[in-house]
Design a protein that fits this description.
This protein is mainly beta. It has one domain. Helix content is 8%, strand content 21%. It contains one helix and four strands; from the N terminus they run βαβββ. The strands form two sheets. Strands 1-2 form a two-stranded antiparallel ribbon. The protein has a two-stranded antiparallel sheet with strand order 3-4. The protein is elongated and about 40 Å long. The two termini are 23 Å apart. The relative contact order is 0.28.
Length: 72
């Protein structure tokens, strides 16, 4: 597992993760938090182009995380 990297900082540097849980429902806690991540293997790190959270959908209590990979 040590060879896996969190894709968010690869795309966003030091910007904090966007919240992915409790955006529309505070039943499990008062504040939105990030608890959904996408991890990539070492050979994909340079291919991470976009990591985005869909903060609008209410289909689930977790927000979808989109990962776009591109060529080196």
């Amino acid at each position: 597992i040590s060879s896996l990297a969190d894709a968010w900082p690869l795309a966003h540097g030091t910007q904090p993760h966007e919240p992915t849980f409790r955006l529309f429902d505070s039943r499990y806690g008062p504040e939105p938090i990030c608890c959904d991540f996408v991890f990539v293997s070492a050979n994909l790190r340079r291919q991470v182009r976009i990591v985005r959270v869909d903060g609008q959908t209410r289909v689930s209590d977790h927000q979808p995380v989109l990962l776009v990979l591109g060529p080196d």
